[in-house]
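ok here's Polynucleotide kinase PNKP phosphatase domain-containing protein:
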Amino acid sequence: MDDDRPYAVLDIDATLSDTSKRIHFIERKPKDWDSFFARAKDDAVLAEGLAVATTLAAEHVIVYLTGRPERIRRDTEKWLKDNGFPDGEVYMRGDTDRRPSMLMKLGRLKRLAEQRPVAVLVDDDVKVIAAAQKAGYTVLRADWGLDPESQPTLFDAQESEGRT
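and the structure:
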């Protein structure tokens, strides 16, 4: 049954989880990445993200593709489970991987597409979305999370520092 369903790939931060209560850790200099990620387990759920994930799970194999570092895997998987997200494989950034998010995520999308079709990528990062579209993937921009115009910190960190 699963073998016939394509992948639906979902980002986590600012797509499924509300990062607004911890963004202040990376607005300061120097950025406090340890505290930023340590508080990820306390994020509220973005209702729109949960609805999209639940809807997609009916006809897709769910994959979570996040720029969060591997070291917080246990907290991330627990958060997804505790908040009612559909089961799915979680792919995280290696703890020392500092590539821009669009490169890291596009590389993973290509590897996933070798296993089965990728029906859709759901992400908040406009650069990730643009790169995925250019590579031929169908995308859904998660515009219900952080607004890149009013909260540039997270978007800058994803691309220039390869941190989330």
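+1. The chain is about 35% helix and 20% strand.
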